[in-house]
Write a structure and sequence with these properties.
21 strands, binds dihydroflavine-adenine dinucleotide, single chain, alpha+beta, 30% helix, Elongation Factor Tu (Ef-tu), domain 3, FAD, FAD/NAD(P)-binding domain, RsdA/BaiN/AoA(So)-like_dom, RsdA/BaiN/AoA(So)_Rossmann, seven-stranded mixed β-sheet, 405 residues
Length: 405
């Protein structure tokens, strides 16, 4: 279709996701004429499927160290100016019922649709317009005689738009099925910004064929574990065995800190001191077999498989030599698993890496050296832990840009 007309707006936001919608409402409330463009046919698609359809929209306990970023200080300003309590204020304004789960995670009682309804209502109240099903074919900067950018041109198949402030809120690469694209990274590169290497985060890991086949028989079993990555980062939560490998909250969390080729050390009995427990069984029940003893704490089928994978011989506890006991304790408290990869962007919740924050103001999200160009949300090199931290970053960074764009 030929380009037909030019429309002027104060602010154009590309991406009607969590960060883009928050930014749009904030800028709109300041009286700015705001237009949000998105190629999807629905706004906030990731919000809708998040948290199993109930959206883990924030966390009771948000700290900068819940985030990975090449500059760990970058997140501090935005997170402290728009906090989880501010978002809870919005939840209260719309009377959305919510509940707290483990680790301070806050979910809607009913549906993630309520979060999208809040954001859409806020945009409407702030008079920010949203145009969906809109492909962006080009972005250009218009400069004055001194070479300073004064305006941006955003071209779509049907319109050319001009704006003073251009906000890129196109998110990361996870779940291409939901409309994720590398658009934001391409815009950053077009303007000479560095994009740090990206990879899938908060993602299940896959195993080498032999381990995968052995463990897949137990798919569906979930165990409370404590997992340590090579860099010493530790997460304690459930681990789920799947027919492709390992998943569950502990695995998703550690996947952000795991690098290909490295092993993970899994404490399968994080709540007991196995050496002490085995010693006590040796005294109280010396004829009990190792398998039966371990099966008091772990599912029997898992114990059988683990013993065969790790060559642990089954015999009465009283017959175990000290060296054998040490091996049992080592396997159970630090089971070494070397994933062969992750399930990738197809199932990842987030993208690690992205637009380098060195070039971005942590207060406003505007590029330090490019007047009027902003990046918010997951497109930046900011990745939160599992638990509502990624949405909190989207709200906080979108809010920060919305105060000034
Ligand atoms: P987001 O991805 O939300 O929005 C980007 C928007 O840009 C989309 O609307 C997209 O269509 C649009 N776009 C992309 N390319 C475009 C282009 N070329 N042209 C036009 N538009 C374009 N986090 C959390 O805190 N709690 C949770 O419960 C979950 N759960 C969860 C489940 C699943 C399955 C996933 C995949 C992710 C989560 N997350 C999460 C992560 C969370 O969804 C994510 O971090 C935020 O949505 C990021 O917000 P953004 O606004 O930055 O991007």
């Amino acid at each position: 279709m030929p380009t037909t007309s030019t429309h002027n707006h104060d602010v154009i936001i590309i991406g009607a996701g969590a960060a883009g919608l928050m930014c749009a409402a904030q800028a709109g409330y300041r009286g700015r004429d705001v237009l949000v463009l998105d190629h999807a046919k629905q706004a906030g698609k990731k919000i809708l499927i998040s948290g199993g359809g109930r959206c883990n929209f924030t966390n009771m306990d948000v700290e900068p160290n819940n985030y990975l970023c090449s500059n760990p200080h970058f997140v501090k300003s935005a997170l402290s100016r728009y906090t989880q309590w501010d978002f809870l204020g919005l939840i209260g304004k719309y009377q959305v019922a919510y509940h707290e789960r483990d680790f301070g995670q806050l979910f809607c009682d009913d549906s993630a649709k309520e979060i999208v309804r809040i954001l859409m209502s806020e945009c409407e109240a702030a008079n920010a317009k949203i145009r969906l099903r809109t492909e962006i074919t080009a972005i250009e900067a218009i400069k004055d005689e001194q070479g300073t950018i004064t305006q941006y041109t955003v071209t779509t198949p049907s319109h050319v738009y001009q704006c003073q402030s251009l906000v890129i809120a196109t998110g990361g690469l996870s779940m291409p099925k939901l409309g994720a694209t590398p658009f934001g990274y391409q815009v950053a590169e077009q303007f000479g910004l560095k994009v740090l290497p990206t990879r899938a985060g908060l993602v299940p890991v896959t195993l080498h064929q032999e381990q995968k086949e052995a463990l897949s028989e137990l798919s569906g079993i979930s165990l409370p574990v404590r997992i340590e990555a090579n860099d010493g980062t530790v997460f304690g939560a459930d681990m789920l065995i799947t027919h492709r490998g390992l998943s569950g909250p502990s695995i998703l969390q550690i996947s952000n800190y795991w690098n290909p080729g490295e092993a993970m050390s899994i404490d399968l009995l994080p709540n007991i001191d196995l050496a002490a427990e085995l010693e006590s069984v040796r005294q109280s029940n010396p004829n009990q077999s190792l398998k039966n003893t371990l099966s008091t704490w772990l599912p029997k089928r898992f114990v059988e498989l683990l013993m065969s994978m790790e060559n642990l011989v089954d015999k009465p506890i009283k017959q175990l030599q000290h060296k054998e006991l040490d091996s049992v304790v080592a396997v159970l408290h630090s089971w070494q698993i070397k994933p062969n990869g992750t399930e990738g962007y197809r199932t990842a919740e987030v993208t690690l890496g992205g637009v380098d924050t060195d070039a971005i103001s942590s207060k406003t999200m505007m590029c330090k050296n490019i007047n009027g160009l902003y990046f918010v949300g997951e497109v930046l090199d900011v990745t939160g832990w599992l638990g509502g931290y990624n949405f909190q970053w989207a709200w906080a960074s979108g809010w920060a840009a919305g105060q000034v764009c």
